[in-house]
Amino acid sequence: MTNGLTVGNGHLLTGGIDTVELAEQYGTPLYVMDEDMIRQACREFKTSIDECYGRGMVCYATKAFCCKEMCRIMNDEGIGLDTVSGGEIYTALSAGFPAERIVFTSNNKKDEEIAFAIDNGVGRITCDNIEELYRISDIAVKKGRTVRVMLRLKPGVEAHTFEAVMTGQIDSKFGFAIETGEALKAAKKVAVLPGIDLAGVHCHIGSQIHDIAPFEKAAEVMFEFIAKLRDEGITIKDLSLGGGFGIKYTDKDVPVPYGDYMKRVSARVRECCDRFGLEMPFIMIEPGRSIAAPAGITLYTVGSRKTIPGIRTYIGIDGGMPDNPRYALYKSEYTAVVANKADEPKSETVTIAGRTCESGDLIGENMPLQHAEAGDIVAILATGAYNYSMASHYNRVPNAAVVMVRDGKSRVVVRRETFEDMCVNDL
Ligand SMILES: *Cc1c(COP(=O)(O)O)cnc(C)c1O
């Protein structure tokens, strides 16, 4: 089986641990992450950066899955963090993560978040728009500080992925457009604004991308722009090429090995440096999904089975949209396994339905699955990214716990919320 999963005694195992026992021990719904897989992915990216560029930094995109323990693991692996909010920065700092390896990237930062980042010595801020540029400058000047800034650019590259997760094209809410001249104007502005050191440029073309070509194209567009800035007397030292590497959710996904991506993109980067007579910048990449998603599974207990003759069978589980809103958001497909019948054939095609009061609260439709009945444990695979981090309290359902497994042991890294937690801010 994929994703570090195996089968033993008819049960699904993750990191060698019986998932049915995990469900019994910790309750369901339960997120389970295989720590070795997370670390392995970090090392693969880090090694590629070292081999392909020599200088650079892998910045894990914390929005994929953020909690203190995850930040500690990233710190332990010596990589950086690409954060999108004061809350993520706070989490990282609380976990003892060094501020200089944190990048703050989002499309609308609040003044207090910018101030918080500057006060705490966050290494780089990626600026999204002209108003923000002035605000960062003002806040930095008031604090007597100089901030290392990157400009988020839209390279105008359309990657083949879901529309909701495409970000590099001109009609996107993220960043400055290169083709309209907006980006050049902004760069000239920063070069003279006080409190800001225009150190770099940044792009992120989308997510769950299975091709290398759009990344190569984006890199090339970025270098054309860096060369144009050089001609204007502006030196760019940092280049972030973003994240977006695809992973396998179902057999339809054929991900590119990350090493192949790194080799081809770095070859294009070197060729661009030669062509434009530029020095190799400090290269950053920002993988999120590819570090967290494959390592995670979610365990649920089946509560009901409803067959509507000639139409479909609903398998009702004790979680759903509150812990995994991705099917409701994007119709994202997943692979499901009955954890206590993992060696049986997937003899049925079912709809897995969540527990909240929304017909759209589904984990998936037309999913092949073993025959499932009340009391069975269903595992949904590759849920390590954009599940816990997108969780909501809809219907006042407390958030599920997160457990990590490693070396044959399991431990809670985020405890399960209680009913009291639901009311903690209620007056
Ligand atoms: C979301 C995001 C990432 C991570 O994307 P993945 O698809 O999870 O790898 C990286 N950089 C930026 C700026 C992002 O918005």
What does this structure look like?
With 427 residues, the chain is α/β, with parallel strands linked by helices. Helices cover 30% and strands 26% of the residues. It has two domains: 5-34 and 294-414, Beta Barrel (Lyase, Ornithine Decarboxylase, Chain A, domain 1), CATH 2.40.37.10; 35-292, TIM Barrel (Alpha-Beta Barrel), CATH 3.20.20. Strands 4, 14, 15, 16, 17, 18, 19, 20 and 21 form a nine-stranded mixed sheet that branches. Residues 61, 63-64, 82, 105, 204, 207, 242-245, 286-290 line the site of pyridoxal-5'-phosphate. Pyridoxal-5'-phosphate binds next to helix 10.
Number of helices: 12
* CATH homologous superfamily designation of the largest domain: Alanine racemase
CATH architecture of the largest domain: Alpha-Beta Barrel
Q: Which molecules other than protein and nucleic acid are bound?
A: pyridoxal-5'-phosphate
Number of separate strands: 21
Q: How large is the share of residues in beta strands?
A: 25-35%
Oligomeric state as shown: single chain
Average the pLDDT over all residues and give the rounded result.
Answer: 95
> By helix and strand content, what is the structural category?
alpha/beta
When the domains are counted, the total is 2
Percentage of residues assigned to helices = 25-40%
- Termini separation (Å)? 49 Å
